[in-house]
Design goal:
By secondary structure, the chain is an alpha/beta fold. It has helices at about 15-25, 40-50, 60-65, 75-90, 105-115, 130-140, 170-175, 175-195, 285-300, 310-325, and strands at about 5-10, 30-35, 55, 70, 90-95, 120-125, 150-155, 195-205, 215-220, 225-235, 240-245, 250-255, 260-270, 270-280, 325-330.
Amino acid sequence: MTSKLRLGILGCGAITRVAHLPAALSHPEVELVAMVDRDRERAQSLAQSRSIRCHISSTTEFDAWELDAVINALPNSLHAATTLQALEHGVHVLCEKPLATTSSDAEACAAMADKCDRILAVGMSRRFVGSHKLMHLLLQESALGSSLGYSCSYGGEFDWKSASGFYFSKSLAGGGVLIDFGVHLLDSLVDWFGPVTRLEYQDDDWGSGVEANAILEVRHSGRYGAVEGKLQLSRTFPLKNLLLVSGTDAEAEISLADLDCVNVHRTIAGEPVKQTMRLEDYPDTSSFCKQLDNFVQSIRGNEKPVVDGWQAAEILRVIENAYANAHRIPEPWSEVGSEIPIAATEVPA
C-alpha cells in the first residue's frame, strides 16, 4: 500500500472532536473519507468546523466508501459489533477503549482480526506517553531496586463534555470509573509488572448502575517477581492524581499533570534528591497522533499494534473479575438506623 490510507471515523462525539480528528487531519499518510454519527447533523457540524469535505452519514457504508481503515469511537456497547462488522468487510480497526464491554466479545474481535488478517489496534493512548516508556527503562535497569510496589490515586469531578451521555448507563458503558479510566491504569500496570494474580475490589455502585468511586488492591506476577499495589479512582472528588512506584533504592512518580516525565526520588550521600527524567528527542505530538501513526505503520507492515485485541481482552478479564467480586465501599453515614452525631449549636433567643 503506497497511497494514502482511506480512513473513516465512526462516532463524532467529544473524543473524536478533541483527539482523533486532529490526529487524522495531521497525519501525512491518511485521507479522511467518511465521518459517521447517528446524529448526522453533529457529524456535519464537526466536518464544517474544520472545513472537511468527506462522506457524512448516520450509517456506515463500508463497501460504498472503499475504506481501508476506521477509528471506532462509538459508545462502548457498540464497539464489539461495529468492529466485527468492519473486520469482516476487510477494514482495519483502531477501536477506542474498551474494545468491548465483556472479555468474550473482545476475544471474538481479536479472533476475527486474526481470521481476516486485518489489524485491530485498541486505543490505550497512555501507552504512547513518555512516562510509560520511561518507567519500563527504569524497571529494566533496576533503578528503583527490589521489592517493588505501587500506589495510585486518580480522580476529580467528572467534567467530560460527552455528546451522548453513555458514560452514565451500565448497559451502554459496561461500568463506571473502573472500565472508563481504570482500564488505562490497569493496562499500563500489567504491561510493566505482568498478569494480575490477586485482586480485591470495592466500589460504590450499590449493586446497580455505575460506580463513581473504586478501590483496588492488586498483586502481579511477572519478570520483577510479585508486585503489589493499590489503586483509588474517583469521578466525584479530587485525588492526588499520582502514580508512585517504590523500590528499595528509589521511588518513581508519574503525575497526571505531565505524563511525559517521571520524577525519581532517591537519597545520595544522605541527602534527598529529585531527578526529573524525559525522553530525549521524543516526538512532540499528542499521544493520539502517536497512536494513529502506530496503527498506520502496522497496516503497512512496518510495526505491530502496541495494544492488540488479545491484550485488551486480558484487561477486560481483570475488570470483569473485579465487578463480579465487588464489595461495597463502607458508607456508614448512609446506613439505615445509623446515628451521626450533630454538634450542638447556639440558637438565638
